[in-house]
């Protein structure tokens, strides 16, 4: 598997380039069962301590090095690598990618995914550098070492990956193979944007293809999403009667992974950009419906945060929910990885920028 089962309930040890579970011998388990209660408690505490240290060692391998203001790219990579539906499709199409189309961008992403699990520091550094160069080839904006926008990086990756799907499908068809784009299958969705005038009845409907949805900040994520899905006054006036129009967005299709982007920057009257530190309640569960009344439940699995007090400088980090029975999170800060409690959501109310919801 290309993604890592980031469960702290498991015990891992690093053996060379592989990470394998540690299985305690049966004799040692039986020996523990016959110890006195006090001795047994001390022994179990020691085992738990050793187990936690080994687990922490395995988790640290999941970090990605910062190669020069590349935290914006690292959080996007960590977010995509944590999406199980997306990575499952990447894994399913890995053989097809290798056989029909030697795409540097896709192969460099897979290389990062593998080095994140099995590579040493040098291999991981080389993989991340190679991926950044491939992104720069797609968009020259990412060639230098200056701080960039995580949203723009995510949009470049997803739109470029989906743009390659046409050539991939044609090449796969000639070889009698089938290709499914991981972005088109799991992340992209169809939306309908409607504008109407209540006074004269004028209407306009435009279909759009999206990979994530931008939201203005509100008291909660569900309220911010509702403000977009419900009718709202627009700044544009009707060309016929001069009245203000109303806008509304509706889902035509629902993706397996719903990505929401909170607008954290606002332009002032003096044409300066300032950061919007509005506290937004991060809903762990969302219910979304389409035009045809099809409903789906989504669960929050990943958060991308922008830390800093200004709009032009700062630092990005990423939080991913642990795949175990406890509501805990992993925080990725470049090559540093930490386990966080469930109270982390309250701390991210003012810094959350990108929210990744997976259909449950």
Helix count, per DSSP? Answer: 12
Q: What fraction strand?
A: 25-35%
The separation of the N and C termini measures 21 Å
The poorly predicted ranges are 1-44, 46-54
* H/E element sequence: EEHHHHHHHHHHEEEHEEEEEEEEEEHE
The major pleated sheet works out as: 8 strands, mixed
Proportion in helices: 25-40%
Helix/strand/pairing category: alpha+beta
Rg calculated over all Cα atoms: 23 Å
Overall pLDDT, averaged? 80
Shape: globular
The total of beta strands comes to 16
How would you describe the overall organization of this protein?
By secondary structure, the chain is of the alpha+beta class. Helix content is 37%, strand content 27%. The protein contains 12 helices and 16 strands. The chain has helices spanning 26-33, 37-60, 71-81, 84-92, 94-100, 104-118, 121-138, 150-163, 165-174, 182-186, 221-229, 344-347, and strands spanning 12-15, 18-21, 189-196, 203-210, 213-216, 232-237, 244-251, 257-263, 265-267, 273-275, 285-289, 295-307, 315-321, 329-333, 336-340, 352-359. Strands 5, 8, 11, 12, 13, 14, 15 and 16 form an 8-stranded mixed beta sheet that branches. Helix 3 (71-81) crosses helix 8 (150-163) and helix 6 packs antiparallel against helix 7. The radius of gyration is 23 Å and the shape is globular. The protein starts with 11 loop residues before the first strand and ends with a strand. 30% of the residues are buried. Mean pLDDT is 80; it is low at 1-44 and 46-54.
């Amino acid at each position: 598997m290309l993604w890592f089962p980031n469960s702290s309930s498991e015990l891992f040890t690093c053996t060379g380039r592989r990470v394998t579970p540690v299985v305690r011998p049966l004799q040692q388990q039986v020996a523990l069962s016959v110890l006195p209660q006090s001795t047994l408690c001390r022994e179990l505490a020691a085992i738990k301590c050793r187990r936690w240290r080994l687990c922490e060692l395995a988790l640290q391998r999941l970090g990605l090095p910062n190669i020069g203001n590349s935290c914006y790219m690292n959080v996007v990579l960590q977010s995509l690598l944590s999406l199980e539906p997306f990575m499952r499709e990447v894994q399913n199409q890995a053989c097809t990618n290798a056989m029909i189309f030697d795409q540097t961008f896709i192969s460099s992403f897979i290389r990062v995914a593998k080095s994140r699990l099995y590579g040493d520091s040098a291999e991981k550094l080389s993989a991340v550098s190679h991926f950044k160069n491939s992104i720069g080839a797609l968009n020259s904006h990412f060639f230098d070492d200056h701080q960039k926008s995580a949203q723009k990086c995510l949009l470049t990756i997803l739109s470029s990956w989906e743009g390659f799907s046409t050539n991939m499908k044609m090449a796969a068809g000639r070889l009698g193979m089938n290709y499914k784009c991981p972005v088109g299958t799991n992340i992209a969705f169809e939306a309908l944007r409607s504008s109407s005038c209540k006074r004269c009845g004028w209407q306009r409907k435009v279909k759009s293809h999206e990979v994530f949805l931008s939201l203005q900040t509100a008291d909660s994520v569900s309220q911010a999403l509702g403000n977009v899905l419900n009718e709202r006054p627009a700044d544009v006036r009707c060309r016929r009667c001069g009245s203000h129009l109303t806008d509304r967005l509706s889902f035509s299709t629902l993706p397996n992974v719903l990505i929401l982007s909170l607008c954290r920057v606002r332009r002032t009257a003096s044409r300066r950009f300032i950061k919007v530190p509005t506290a937004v309640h991060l809903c762990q569960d969302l219910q979304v419906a389409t035009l045809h009344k099809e409903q789906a439940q989504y669960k929050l699995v990943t958060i991308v945060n922008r830390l800093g007090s200004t709009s032009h400088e700062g630092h990005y980090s990423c939080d991913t929910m642990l795949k175990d029975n406890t509501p805990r999170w992993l925080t990725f800060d470049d090559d540093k990885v930490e386990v966080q409690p469930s109270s982390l959501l309250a701390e991210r109310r003012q810094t959350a920028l990108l929210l990744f919801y997976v259909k449950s």
